[in-house]
Amino acid sequence: MDEPSDVTDADTNIKRADESDKEGEVRVEAPPTIPPRRSKRTSLNRKRKSEEEASESEKEFVIEQILAHGTNDDANHPTARLGQTVYRVRWYGYDATGDTWEPIQHLPRNQVVSYYKRKRLKLPSDLGDAQLG
Predict the structure, then answer these.
(1) Of the candidates 91, 84, 83, the residue with the CA atom closest to the CA atom of residue 66
(2) Are 26 and 17 in contact (CB under 8 A)?
(3) Alpha helices of the chain — where are they, by DSSP H?
(4) Structural domains of the chain sorted by starting position, each given as residue range(s) with its CATH number in brackets
(5) How far apart are the C-alpha atoms of 130 and 104, rounded to whole Å?
(6) Phi-psi region of 42 (alpha: psi -120 to 50; beta: other; left: phi over 0)
(7) I want to staple 92 with a disulfide (CB 3.0 to 4.6 A). Which of 47, 54, 64, 121 is the partner?
(8) Which of 44, 103, 38 is nearest to 69 (CA)?
(9) Contact 117, 127 (CB under 8 A)
(10) Would you give the DSSP letter of residue 26?
(11) In this predicted structure, what is the pLDDT of residue 127?
């Protein structure tokens, strides 16, 4: 053969040497490096997830009813001082397992007043600490 020939086998990425190389020598070329592609779906899922996390932290819970009151005897309660009056709150859209004990500072004043009227109890002295609403 007079002209050098390069034969490429597309399936195996093997390129044979031309006539001037040693006979039977085979050069193997590495396949080209392809950068990983990010699918739009992945980035959309991440965006959706971060939006859900943000909306969860900004989510406003609605009080369905104040069920009971008592004195906080849990030194580890995250928001109420030891000995402070706390209220058992049923949240709208949740069942009894979602009830929480909240200090008066977290509750709207009208909800606290409704609770005391329903129970026919004297209004608490710290009612002024409740949120307006």
Answers:
(1) 91
(2) yes
(3) 40-58, 109-119
(4) 62-129 (2.40.50.40)
(5) 5
(6) alpha
(7) 64
(8) 103
(9) no
(10) E
(11) 85
pLDDT tens track for 65-113: 999 999 888 877 888 888 888 999 999 999 999 999 999 999 999 999 9
Secondary structure (3-state) at 104: helix
Question: Rounded to an integer, what distance in angstroms lies between the CA atom of residue 106 and that of residue 102?
Answer: 6
User: What is each CA distance from 12 to 30, 31, 76, 102, in whole angstroms?
Assistant: 10, 9, 66, 69
| Separation CA 51–CA 30 (nearest Å) | 42
Q: What would you measure as the largest C-alpha separation in the chain, in angstroms?
A: 111
Structure token pair of residue 40: 């739009």
